[in-house]
Amino acid sequence: MAPDAGKDSQLTLPPTRGPLQVPLSGRLLLDSPFYNKGTGFTSQERLDFRLKGLLPTNIQTLDEQVKRAYQQYSNQGDDLAKNTFMTSMAEQNTVLYYRLIQDHLKEMFSIIYTPTEGDAIENYSRVFRRPDGCFLSIKHPDEVEERMSKFVREGDPDGGVDYIVVSDGEEILGIGDQGIGGILISVAKLALTTICAGLHPDRTLPVVLDTGTDNEDLLSDDLYLGHRFKRVRGEAYTDFVDRFVRTAKKLFPKAYIHFEDFGLTNARTLLDRYRNETAVFNDDIQGTGCVTLAAIMAGLHINKVKMEELRVVIFGAGTAGCGIAEQIQAAIATKAGKSKDEVVSQIWCVDKPGLLLESMGDSLSAAQKPYARPSSEGWEDKDHKSLQAIIASVKPHVLIGTSTKPGAFTKEVVQEMAQHVDRPLIFPLSNPTRLHEAKPQDLAEWSEGRALVATGSPFSPVKYGGKEIEVAECNNSVCFPGIGLGAVLSRAKLVTDKMLVSAVTALAKEAPALKDPDRGALVPDVEDARRVSVKIAMAVIRCAVEDGLAQVQNIPVRNDEDLQEWVEVQMWDPVYREYKKV
0.85 cut: is pTM over it? Predict the structure, then answer.
């Protein structure tokens, strides 16, 4: 594709095609993962960059390197060893690392991300070999700018960083408080933005905020690499996070900040505090909500229910559950042309005490309170603790599980759903697989093949009535990278509800179920994430331009073909480019 996509349009990122200027040589070049080609350096490059004698004589193609690397990967003893191998690969050769994953994405996804990345995070201090990312200490708030400034690229007006993922490690991948090990979730999320949306790997920054830990095992572990004191909370914590955000915007003025795996209260508070000031995103709240909403939208095309009429029960009102509720609420309001307050009554949230009620008062979190049912509905006099009883009363079109309570969607619950709705949407989303509220095969059998199912982990296709039905995985990786790509390329000042609804609509249109309602999945597979991310980014960019939030001029939004080319030409690919000595 031509680098002048859209003709007069202004490109946001450095060119991803053509010769690359390289300032390093000799061993320094081989020690730089972004520039290192290993045995892939050409004869001329070995001469120009003083590499003769530092490499084996045979020059190999990237395909040959991938073949060798895959053999080495396959010989690892277990999944954690494979994860460690991939970490080592990332530290040696960026292009080879991403090309290896790209060629084997379906197989490797669970290794580089959940669930194996969770094991790596739990063992972070014990398997530690080499640091990656920026470590900020709450004991040294005055050093935040000094520490982050080490990642500034001199001469770049934007500081050289487009996308920041930050975590304080309090609520990691369903395994809880992992303290400073949270740096690995920041690293992993950024790897996914590159794999799934072509974000430049040398223009991203993983950050961990070390604010202590409440994990007793870590506190008593002599090898633990973070602060061995209880988590700091209150004003000191708030001020520390604020210092990070202000410093990030000072050093990297147009960077997109992605909050990841913060605790429930902090996640909501931080998103609400900064979402109207700068471009921020919380994947646990917004990403999970977006991909789930996309599955719902695809399902509504099949069961012919209008968004304005939708009734949803969410079983598990934590970070993910409330985030899903918020995205559904915003989508209904947008589609119906109503305020969010007017449509909140279409969502019923259930947690440990049962259906959330206003009478529960201060026992409800700030995120839960908007979804508490008013006393006027008389739930205090009904059975509001039994999920089956709630479903019998509400007659929902959609049942979503984010409870981590295995088996909560019983045969009786499912049959109650199917009794009131012809094609019920049932989404057991809790991770990992052992915590799912129901198994897809059971859902198919209990609903006589009528349930439209999406899960939070990968499942094999189910068989019912002589048909094989794909099971949609509500994998955030088909959603958040595209949103980030759109925000980065447009230099969006904010990430608005309208942008997210547009992103979800674009994602829903790519659902295989729209082409094959009887067999297709409600969400695209992760192998299609890069293609889908382009569509999502285009939707986000259009919103940013329409609402005056884009800081890039002359983006070619009027024509789909031109806009798609403009997006794709700026996406990074794992290929070896010709090197020119600076």
Answer: yes
